[in-house]
Amino acid sequence: MVVAVAETQPQCAEANIKCALDTLSFFSKQMCGCKDKACADKITTDMTHWGVEMSKKNPADVKPSEAEQKQVVETVTRYTDCMTRLMVEGGGTAPPRPTDPCGGDPCGN
To answer: What does the pLDDT look like over 24-68, one tens digit per residue?
Structure first.
């Protein structure tokens, strides 16, 4: 497994938009720095674990602005593009690319 980007994952003591965006950016950079499928699998597992933990902390009244929603979509798209490239090159089955990561909901409910 090859990870090309050495950076520390942001630690979010509480759920807040800035930390979530910083962490999504961190995972995107990590994924795009991967050179093989094993690395991509590890980053995916780490990001999934982070998402589960953050969902436990997320108060229902925290709503991203339109600009923040756009940044989430751009970051997740970059992450997905890099992951898809590694899955295809690594012989795996590429997951479908999400066109709307919020499923029509502005990531709030």
So the answer is: 999 999 999 998 888 999 999 999 998 888 888 776 667 788 999
Residue 64 belongs to some domain of the structure? yes
Q: Is residue 29 part of a domain?
A: yes
Specify the length of the chain in residues: 109
Q: Considering its fold, how many domains does the chain have in total?
A: 1
Q: Is residue 10 in some structural domain?
A: no
**What's the Cα-to-Cα distance from 77 to each of 4, 33, 47, 81, 83, rounded to whole Å?**
20, 15, 14, 6, 10
pTM, entire model: 0.71
Domain of residue 66 covers 17-70+83-88
**Six token digits for residue 79:** 């992450």
5 lies in a domain?
Answer: no
Cα 4 from chain centroid (whole Å): 17
Task: Check residue 101 and report its DSSP letter.
Answer: T
**What secondary structure letter does DSSP report for 96?**
P
User: Which residues are CB-contacts of 79 (< 8 A; sequence separation ≥ 6)?
Assistant: 24, 27, 28, 31, 32, 47
